[in-house]
Amino acid sequence: MLQTLTKLARIVGCAGMATMLAGVAAISGAAPAAATSRIKDLVDVEGIRDNQLIGYGLVVGLNGTGDSLNNSPFTRQSLQAMLERLGMNTRDAALRTKNVAAVMVTANLPAFATQGTRIDVTVSSLGDATNLQGGTLLVTPLLAADGEVYAVAQGPVAVAGFSAIGDAASITRGVPTSGRIANGALIEREIAFSLAQLPHLRLALRNPDLTTASRIANAINDFLGPGTAAATDPATVRLLVGGSGKYGGDVISLLTDIEQLRVDPDQTAKVVIDEQSGIIVMGQDVRVSTVAVAQGNLTVTISETPEVSQPQPFSETGRTEVVPRTQILVDDQSGNRLAIVEGGVSLQQLVDGLNALGIGPRDLISILQAIKTAGALQAEIEVM
Questions:
Q1: Rounded CA gap, 182 and 91, in Å?
Q2: Which domains does the chain have, with CATH numbers?
Q3: DSSP letter assigned to residue 249
Q4: Confidence (pTM)
Q5: Tens digits of residue pLDDT in 352-379
Q6: Residue-wise pLDDT tens digits, 105-148
Q7: Which residues contact 129 (CB under 8 A, 6 or more apart)?
Q8: φ, ψ of residue 40 in degrees (nearest 5)
Q9: Three-state DSSP class for residue 273
């Protein structure tokens, strides 16, 4: 650790870094805490998943903030079809209402949701409606990917945003054309899945990794016995339900105990860069090989300070003139030098040192990308 700090001190070369190095040295003797996680937080169990639902409907009762029927033909057709089903023919009528809006309704059907239970739905405007506040969604069937109806939604729409418009100004907060209906959909059909009848289960890793998958399989085998679990690929651990005889086929109790086992997950060395906001996120295993780094910018400053020239008193031929005065300064930061970054210095130590020199996030991003191009950054860079 002291050798690494010495390398970093040569990289930075500033007096202000001494205090930071002293603080790092003071805490270097502390043992790192084990960053273990529950298997429950690392994997998804096969079959325990949500299903997405979607539907098309009408929101009525809007205070003149709905769709313009001339600009939204689908709203006009839907309104006419609904009225015909209720026994009214409006095909030849001139509809001018602004209190109706066509919307898309979306929801997530939870795993093992039973018939008769309720779920939340999200309502989003499809036409040129300006506000859904005060509206009521009419009966809307919600379909899954197979085209079957699994739920029916209806109810008053709750909108978090608002919009106020005056003659000379307007203000909008949030998104008034989108809202939610709490418990707004009633489940009409269940998705059949027999979890307890499966001879084996697959645990899908949320962050696929060979080492993590192997550690999960080893933790399960240590708890239940050899041969119960095996990592088939970086994203899957295969669990043999019949191999855990003490549970007597009780899959729920088996999964409950397995979910609480703790594993130390591994992660790849990665640097995530958001160029728009200048945010840099890095993993602890990122390392930098020996490389030379120099950073400098060319800054040109131009300032105009015009002066007024007055003629001598009682002069018959003189006149007032504006004399331009221009000052140009060029700063090429000639004092900057190449810094040698020796192998073994972590990326965190490098960034801390560059920050101590006053290098901002934008320059850090450019330096890290240049180091990666040179092949000295032992990590994957992901630019958002």
A1: 35
A2: 2-27+270-310+321-383 (no CATH), 37-46+194-263 (3.30.1360), 51-187 (no CATH)
A3: T
A4: 0.67
A5: 666 665 666 777 778 788 888 888 788 8
A6: 999 999 899 999 999 999 999 999 999 999 999 999 999 999 99
A7: 59, 62, 65, 66, 67, 101, 177
A8: -60, -35
A9: strand
